[in-house]
Amino acid sequence: MDMLEDESLLKSRTGQGPEPSPGAARPAWATAVLATVLIFTTVVDVLGNLLVILSVLRNRKLRNAGNVFVVSLAFADLVVAFYPYPLVLYAIFHDGWSLGDTQCKVSGFLMGLSVIGSIFNITGIAINRYCYICQNFSYDRLYSYRNTLLLVALIWLLTVLAIVPNFFVGSLQYDPRVYSCTFAQTVSATYTITVVVVHFFVPIAVVTFCYLRIWIMVIQVRRKVKSEVRPRIKPSDLRNFITMFVVFVLFAICWAPLNFIGLAVAVNPEEVAPHIPEWLFVVSYFMAYFNSCLNAIIYGLLNQNFRREYKRIVMSMWKPQLFFQETSRGGH
């Protein structure tokens, strides 16, 4: 009997069998809320980010170096909507993971690909905006079509390299608290600290530096400080910068709780991990998941060029011929 119990426990930890289910202790309404949030996130993620990609492809003026990173970021957000999120929903509806260890590892890998790809692309966008506004004289040389594509390829190469160590550490596991195959914070304290610092705090520091420099320049231009040696910032440039700044701020807000929890747990797993309330851990995870659907909404609310293109694409559902009419009006 003891051998059967040990085998069952082993299978539950590897995603090969029934696991300790949170359903018995978690109210039905809480599970329903999690499912509703994830369904909403998935639907808006798919529709919104497809609109972003189609808008850039259709609108000639939107096809610039900066928006290549925006398309790459939209792709990163789409990755989770097409595979990991549906599997999480499946686990919620079946009150546990029953899809096997391979599916679990693939789901965890794609989840990591999306998360790290997002933060690296946001960092790439911030550096691009910094060069465009603060280093305008060298922007065209730095961000030629070829160089931009190489930079995006480098971002995704670094993203894949950043995820591969998870397979050696064994940190991609099913967590019944969030119904997800994801990064296990308690597997290795050293590795968890490295992940949080390298994949979150360092990129956040780089993005913060870039945007602070841009804000300083914006203030200088507004106050006409050294305006004779500084290029004037066009209103469209300012609106585009504010849009991407909001994208960054919301990403930081949505992902900060989970990363701070991970850092706290890694510093002292035995003492801290048991004292993290389950509700706080679950809320931090689903806040992070929710972020994947926000960017497309932000573009539509704050960038009139994307907003107009959204409307044209939606209208083409009733008049299909409009979809094949490339838009040439727009802005940087």
UniProtKB/TrEMBL annotation:
It is found in: Cell membrane. GO terms for molecular function: melatonin receptor activity. It comes from the Eukaryota. One of its GO terms (biological process) is rhythmic process. SMART domains: 7TM_GPCR_Srsx (SM01381). Residues 48-299 form the G-protein coupled receptors family 1 profile domain. High affinity receptor for melatonin. The activity of this receptor is mediated by pertussis toxin sensitive G proteins that inhibits adenylate cyclase activity. This is G-protein coupled receptors family 1 profile domain-containing protein. It comes from Champsocephalus esox.
